[in-house]
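Problem: given the chain below (70 residues), write out its structure.
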Amino acid sequence: MTDEHPDENQNLDAERAVAQAPPTGDDRVDDAIAGLSRLPGRPAEEHVAVLEEAYGRLRDILEDLDPEQR
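Solution.
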């Protein structure tokens, strides 16, 4: 039996990966990563904005850390 829609399986795998991301121990990081769960079902042209938002939040968290914590 062959897969008629292999891209659909890849999308499901990506959704599961985001939904099952293990906790990092930092609620701010977990919240930023959880924002990626908004990607499935959105048109591709909206993905950049969602990714940039998560990246910006993660970058801000890193900037807030002491140099010794990085």
